[in-house]
Amino acid sequence: MKNFLANCDSFINSGSTADNILGVSEITELNSLWKMLVAECLGTLFLVVIGCGSCIALKQPAEYVNYVQVALAFGLTVATMAQAIGHVSGCHINPAITVSFFVTGNIKLLRAIFFIVVQCVGAIGGSALLKLITPEEKSGNLGLTVVSENVTPVQAMLIEALLTFLLVFLVQSVCDSRREDIHGSAPLAIGLAVTAAHLTGIQYTGSSINPARTFGPAVIGNSWEHHWVYWVGPILGGIVAGLVYKLFFRVRKEESESYNF
């Protein structure tokens, strides 16, 4: 019994296991944590305002919204926010990226949970602002992603998973601290990946690749049809991308050579 109590006391005092999983020490650093949470909330808010705003047709019928315009709006917004707040929180602004980084051990559980919560709050706030600044007769569904009538929900889920895999695989790659060959702009590369995914995915699912981006308009518009697609697909794609990169492509300590771009 004494040995058991001694072991428990040692575990509690060390806190190593709990901290490795939960990241309690990160949460106690309140100044750093609050900056991260504000950055994630603000970044997701602007992603929804600008990205979803590009889906609204003020001067023509909604069906004439230009796919290239929407793709560039989302891609450039992600690149802009990554440049602006990447040094603060990593600029996830996407639950799929946050979950992927948790699964691969880049962030701890508590930070991941807080990130996802504030990302969703930011998305709701962004959608509410978009509704406020848009004439009611033109607001439509506030840029909510919808599954094409020609695509089944399962197909839509797989499409979202594939497109998110592309994005998260790139994010994991450019965030690999052991790479020495990256001399270009990581934010721009991430923005281009978002743009590429949208150019293909809009006609299938609206190309969410971000559960929070769909969650915000869904809450404000109270529209939940096939909503599960936009959580299951991106998170599944993000997890697989993270694990594939970590297991097969992450630079190891003994790897001194790589292609130089």
TrEMBL record:
State whether it acts alone or in a complex, and with which partners, per the record.
Answer: Homotetramer.
What is the official name of this protein in its record? Answer: Aquaporin AQPAe.a
Please state the protein's primary subcellular location.
membrane
Q: Which family does it belong to?
A: Belongs to the MIP/aquaporin (TC 1.A.8) family.
Which key words are in the record? Membrane, Repeat, Transmembrane, Transmembrane helix, Transport
**What subcellular compartments does it reside in?**
Membrane
User: Is the ATP-binding keyword given for this protein?
Assistant: no
Membrane-spanning parts: 37-58, 64-88, 109-134, 154-174, 186-206, 228-248
Q: Name one GO cellular component term.
A: plasma membrane
* Pfam family, any one: MIP
* Membrane topology classification: Multi-pass membrane protein
MF-aspect GO terms = water channel activity
Give a GO biological-process term: chemical homeostasis
Q: What does this protein do?
A: Forms a water-specific channel.
Classification via InterPro entries:
Aquaporin-like, Aquaporin_transptr, MIP, MIP_CS
* Keyword Transmembrane attached: yes
